[in-house]
Every structure is written in structure tokens, then in C-alpha cells.
Amino acid sequence: MFFSNRKKQRSLSAYLDGELTGTQSIDFSEQLAFNADLRSQLADFAATDSLVRNALTPPRIPNPPVVSTTRDEAVRVNPPSRRRLKPAALAAAGLLVTAGITLASLRRRGIV
Amino acid sequence: MSNRRLSLLDSEESERIARVVEGDLRAFNELVDQYYRMAYSLAYKVLNNEDDAREITQDAFVRMHSALDGFRGDASLKTWIMRIVMRLSLNRRRDRSRSSWRRLGLHCNNEESVQETAPCFQTPEAEYISRETRMQVQQLVDRLPDSLRQVVILSSFEDLSYEEIAQILNLPIGTVSSRLHAARKKLLQQFREHDIL
Q1: Looking at chain B, which residue has its C-alpha nearest residue A47?
Q2: Assembly ipTM
Q3: Cβ-based contacts of A74 with chain B (< 8 Å)
Q4: Neighbour count for residue B65 (Cβ, 10 Å)
Q5: Which of A19, B54, B106, B154 is most buried by its number of CB atoms within 10 A?
Q6: Which of B20, B16, B56, B40 minimizes the C-alpha distance to B123?
Q7: Is B1-105 a CATH 1.10.1740.10 domain?
């Protein structure tokens, strides 16, 4: 089978990626056997791929996170909020203290 | 889910998806276990940053969990997850390139800024080439036009066919093939110019 130059080029990538059909692959292998330039180009592409693959591969891969399967193990997304007294509670406490002091003062003077 | 909708999935996978949709967290963990490495690798390859890749991968699985009910099964689960990760990673990359820190060149290099926060799997490929070559190649891939870079990144997964790459990027197979060939030629030329090959 005759491959045009352009088709040869495209087939080179497809051959390298194992994307040619059985017959196409056999035909292209024959072309390769008789064409040193094509073989050299194939080797260059393979080397390029290898470099890219190695350079892009992450140096480390973290272990997958585990989503907890029971209620007790549930992952807490937000940290527990600190208990804070609401302003109304603080005002009520202040009023009680003031009333207590006033009552004690009035008792001391014998008014109550 | 109908059989037709899950025609591209094997029975084990479709059963697992059904369990996840019903709220079975164990089934969801199995899915995460199965696809986490692949998803993380893709995010890392697009973003070249471990923290971003970890965050995007987790985000992708959260989205996958909430969208699984509507998964039509007209692509494999693998390509569907890869498509989600790719989209999120490209969005992050775009946002990052807009950041004023990056425009001023004040961003950190990922390799120096990484701190181990969790037990990791050390990939043997990472030891294969020198750190300098690795960075040069990463930079040259990074400088490719988006359309070529995306195809190069996906083709670096050995188990992805042209058809799967086409599904992930929503492109015709012929376009994947021609872009990949163009990218190889361009990279080869650049590797030679930089004495890498």
C-alpha cells in the first residue's frame, strides 16, 4: 500500500499510539522497514513522548481521602464554634447584678 | 437508571453508581479509590502544582457525587470524571493566570513550595529524568497553545485512546489525531533547540 507523505506523517503518530487498525498497522510496518527516515522520525517521536510523560508525571500522589461511613466518624468540615455569650444574655446578667447591689444598698439603709 | 443509559458501563460499575446515588458512602469511597490517582495526575499535569491539584481533585469528586444521579452513561465513567477534572483544572489555571501575583512573577515554584501533608505514593517516573530536564520540558509543554497542550497532557496517559481523548475534550477523533501530531512535531523541534534531545 502506498502512503502519501502527509498520510505517512499522520500515520506515524497513530502507529505510535496504537491507533491504526490491524491491516493499516501491518502496511505501515512495511513502510517502516524500507524507510530509514521514517524509522528515525518514529524514534524521535517516541523519545519526545517519553520525556513528556516523565516530566508531567506528578512526583508524588497523595492517598485518596476517605469519606467516613458512620455518623460517629463524620468529618467535621467547620471547626466547632467557641461558646460565646450573646449580647442579650450579657445585658440581662448586668441588670441582675445592678439590681442586687441596689437592693443590698437599700436594705443597709433600712429603706426596704 | 436504565440499561440503555449505562450501556457503556460494566455491570459492576453501574451497580456501584446506583449504590452511590442511593447514598452508600462505601460505594463512593470505592469510586474515589479507583479514580483518584488518575484524576489527581490529570489535575497536576494541567496545573503543575500539588496543592492546586489536590484541591481540584477533591472538588471534582464532590461534584461527581452530586451529579452522579444525572450521569447518562453515554461516555464511560472514566472519561466523564476526566472531563470534570479537566474543566475544573482549566478554570483554575485561567484564574491563576489572571492573578496579579502571577502577572508580577511572584508566584512560588511548585516544587519548592510543596510540603508533605499526607502520606504519598512516590511515582517511579519522577526519578527517571533530572530535575532540570523535567522543569525545562514542563515549561515547553506549558508554552504550547492550549489546544495542543490539552491533547498532549491527555495523551500522556497511556491508557487513553484517541476516542476517549476526543470524548473528554468534545472534539472529533480526527482533530485529536492531527493536534497530537502537530504538538509532537513542535515539541520535538523545541527539545532540539534546547538540547534536550
Answers
A1: B197
A2: 0.79
A3: none
A4: 16
A5: B154
A6: B40
A7: yes
